[in-house]
TrEMBL record:
Classification of source organism: Eukaryota, Metazoa, Porifera, Demospongiae, Heteroscleromorpha
Record-linked InterPro entries: Rho_GTPase_activation_prot, RhoGAP_dom
Residue ranges constituting the Rho-GAP domain according to the UniProt record: 54-239
GO process annotations (BP): negative regulation of endocytic recycling; small GTPase-mediated signal transduction
UniProt protein name: Rho GTPase-activating protein 1
Annotated GO CC locations: cytoplasm
Pfam families per record: RhoGAP (PF00620)
Annotated spans, Disordered: 22-44
GO molecular-function terms, A-Z: GTPase activator activity
Amino acid sequence: HRYDLSLKVPVRHLATSDSRSVFHTPLPLSGEEEKGGEASAGHAARASRRQFGVRLENLQLDDNNIPKVLSTCVEYLEKKGMEVVGIFRRSPATATIQTWKEQFNKGHEVDLESHGDPHLAAVLIKLFLRELPEPLLTFNLYDPILALKSRPTEEKVSVVHIMLRERLPPINFDILKYLVRFLAKVSAHEEVNKMSPSNISIVIGPNLIWGTNPVASLAALGDINSFTLLLINHSSEIFPEQTKASKTEEY
């Protein structure tokens, strides 16, 4: 999507790897946000109010373990955006996006209905994903995901179900499950909104995962989008109702 590739935001270098990517444009973090730390019972007390450009384990989450910006945008779109033609493809003015982004970053209660533009909520979802310091699907799963392309579809579904449950951190798993189920709902209205699972995967896929090499990430777009399409088309099998993320060392 042309808008996804055009934002002029400086890329922050991660200490652990060269993670520069055209899809990854996080803003500099404050000292509090840089400290990191594991999620714990006291997480909410020290979590960053900021929603964009912050590691997931440092975010304030809602009662369902979902970042506030994501749940706010999804809930609004479920009410007002499901039948909007080209949702996730169109974008408001950059100044408008930045204004609303700052409202979330300041910890304000955001009322998207007061603006009345579903495209704003859709863009904020993509922006939130793209500005994560590490992609939602993590750097560790980049190569395993690309390696799936040679497997038959029926085998991929089972493999992906296990891989995501066992290798994604619990917070990432919960957010991905929440997001993919929502995207499947959007695609169910494709006769009206013209956003088929394939169309959605093209605009969302590059914001779910990228590699440490931007050139290689561009070359892998087809495989990334195909993986996203698999998630949407088989959301109920990959994310059954009772599925919980589990911590294991190997897949």
